[in-house]
Design a protein that fits this description.
By secondary structure, the chain is of the alpha/beta class. Helix content is about 40%, strand content about 15%. It is built from 24 helices and 17 strands. The strands form 4 sheets. A 9-stranded mixed sheet has the order 6-7-9-8-10-13-14-15-17, sandwiched between helices. Strands 3-2-5-4 form a 4-stranded mixed sheet. It has a two-stranded antiparallel sheet with strand order 1-16. Strand 8, helix 13 and strand 9 form a beta-alpha-beta unit.
């Protein structure tokens, strides 16, 4: 049987800065992959970020200007000008490996003598994984690579990597690494791979501090272990709840994964806010034939960073078929267009920090407009703007919490951002975006609460530093959090589990999808061209499984808390999550968790 490729790819939009941490963390822990490659690989898979198409007020270099100083290197690079060896240092001990030996190893089935002292610690499968890793190619243009490396987030990650990978003289390798990444992207034959990055390092040699790398990997393993312990705890609580509850036979109950009985129409329109110089597109899904005495409740879906209105069209269609009006705004400062702008060299930031301000204001403006339109004959009794739920993913999850009454807390943000360590940053790159809000001139506390919002469902939400932690206890409306155990963009423990433990609202739910990633919930609509190809390990198990979970659980949550239909209550129990759960993507659902339980796990 042919061996499954190590990195099969699947097309997905990219809604956040992305390290290759989870896959490698698991393999560092269980398979002892060569640690010298862990940091460069994780960094390489952080490259494709989201851009901001709006023009910044500061002077920007074009991608051509930024690449200009590199072009002579591309044209005239010779072996004498590229790295020939890697020095591996651990305290006073230092060993040297020729790049040529790594090339020979990658391109053949043999193991050069120089590498045998290292590969003898790996079994044949691990050796083959090592070989494939060296040649794993990321399809990004030199423009995209260069643009990312000049964003604030790119420079921060480059500085972290440069502290571990140094020049042969021991200096930080930040600038040399920048050149190596771009030069590797120029390689038309092999492209951007770990091996070509090593090869194009524009000095005779590089030095990798294995002692420092080992400490980082150990810390990462500890964080991964904490996440796994948390998932185990959630499963135990779920099991206990199921054991103490009466048996429910969901085989004979209505199937919430199926399409509902309502047809619906979709209307699109543009909305503008002159006070913010901002305009955005909206899709409105309206059920047809709704005959109840009151208008259907309204659900807002707020997409994540780098996504668009189509990302959650599957969920909008599902809810509309079950009698909900659904409205989906496209936030112009954080949509797919920004990724395209960055990759094309027309933007130099992942997103403007004021997007954390604009997104909640977009939703409030939209509800105001829908309230106004509800007086028109065409929209009268088509939706209820006083019974509104919001579903948000990633940055959309932050948007939902902000509208639910969790204010932005600047003093808390300043204090937290001042003490972030590099490992924490590498495992939660959303912190870069959150801390970037400090570049804005804002009040100490900004409250976006909108009383029309009656329930929120946040998927892979972000906001651990931004949102006032003490105020989470005052959020009184129903809240559901959906988390992915393999999410390295907005990691489960700090971004969803800990905030959940701070909630006190009587109607709170945490759905954990054990090995789901940041991309499991999102979709690429038919006909949309993928912006970036992601390895399957980053996408996780078949996203259709996660979509089915979200359709069913999302319908139950909104049906019970917005439509006030008691028939949906059993579907919000742990037993229903157990019923839905599939082996490829196990899930568990709990209703409470204490901070003391999490503190115990982190000791």
């Amino acid at each position: 049987m042919d061996q499954k490729p190590l990195f099969p790819t699947q097309a997905f939009p990219l809604p956040f800065p992305l390290p290759f941490t989870i896959w490698l963390s698991a393999h560092v822990e269980t398979h002892s992959l060569p640690r010298l490659l862990y940091i460069p690989l994780k960094f390489m898979y952080s490259l494709p970020l989201i851009g901001n198409p709006r023009r910044t007020r500061k002077r920007r270099w074009t991608w051509a200007q930024r690449l200009g100083w590199l072009l002579p290197l591309v044209v005239g690079l010779s072996p004498a000008q590229a790295a020939e060896r890697i020095s591996l240092s651990y305290g006073l001990v230092e060993r040297t490996i020729a790049i040529e030996s790594l090339e020979e190893f990658a391109e053949s089935d043999s193991i050069p003598r120089e590498l045998r002292p290292y590969t003898r610690y790996f079994d044949p499968e691990q050796v083959e994984q090592f070989r494939q890793i060296l040649q794993t190619r990321l399809e990004l243009s030199p423009v995209a690579v260069s643009q990312f490396l000049y964003t604030q987030q790119g420079e921060s990650l480059l500085a972290q990597l440069g502290a571990v990978v140094r020049t042969e003289s021991g200096l930080e390798g930040t600038q040399a690494l920048r050149a190596a990444f771009v030069l590797a992207a120029f390689d038309t034959e092999e492209g951007l791979t770990p091996l070509t990055i090593l090869r194009y390092f524009p000095l005779d040699g590089m030095q990798i501090d294995l002692e420092r790398t080992s400490r980082i990997v150990t810390q990462i393993q500890q964080r991964v272990t904490q996440t796994q312990q948390t998932i185990t705890l959630l499963h135990q609580q779920s099991d206990d709840a199921i054991a103490s509850a009466p048996f429910l036979n969901f085989d004979t109950a209505p199937n919430l994964e199926r399409r509902g009985r309502f047809a619906y129409d979709v209307q699109s329109f543009e909305l503008a806010d002159a006070t913010r110089d901002r305009a955005f597109s909206v899709d409105l899904y309206l059920p047809i034939g709704f005959t109840l005495s009151t208008p259907p409740p309204l659900v807002v879906i707020s997409h994540g960073l780098g996504s668009n209105r189509g990302t959650f069209a599957y969920l909008a269609r599902h809810l509309a078929s079950h009698g909900f009006a659904v409205v989906v705004p496209e936030h112009p400062g954080s949509n797919t267009q920004q990724l395209e702008e960055l990759l094309m060299g027309r933007a130099d930031k992942v997103t403007e920090p004021d997007e954390f301000i604009n997104r909640p204001l977009d939703v409030t403006l939209l509800l105001d407009e829908l309230e106004r339109r509800s007086q028109e004959p065409a929209f009268r009794d088509r939706y209820d703007t006083q019974r509104v739920g919001i579903i948000g993913q990633s940055l959309g999850g932050y948007t939902a919490f902000a509208l639910a009454g969790a204010p932005l807390n600047r003093p808390q943000l300043e204090q937290d951002c001042a003490v972030i360590d590099p490992v924490t940053l590498s495992l939660n790159l959303s912190l870069l975006l959150q801390c970037d809000v400090l570049t804005l001139e804002t009040e100490d506390r900004i409250d976006f609460r909108d009383d029309r919002i009656q329930a929120i469902l946040a998927i892979n939400s972000v906001g651990s530093l931004l949102l006032d932690r003490s105020a989470l206890a005052s959020v009184s409306i129903p809240v559901m959090l959906i988390s992915g155990g393999a999410d390295t963009v907005t990691p489960a423990l700090p971004e969803q589990v800990e905030p959940f433990a701070r909630l006190t609202t009587p109607h709170r739910y945490l759905l954990m999808m054990d090995n789901a990633t940041h991309f499991s919930a999102i979709d690429i609509p038919d006909g949309d061209a993928p912006t970036v190809q992601l390895p399957t390990e980053l996408v996780g198990p078949d996203p259709a499984i996660a979509h089915a979970y979200i359709n069913a659980i999302g319908l139950a949550f909104m049906g019970y808390h917005l439509s006030n239909e008691d028939t949906f209550a059993p579907y919000l129990d742990s037993s229903y999550a157990r019923y839905l759960s599939q082996p490829d993507l196990p899930i568990s659902l709990i209703h409470s968790l204490s901070l003391s339980q999490l503190t115990y796990l982190q000791k």
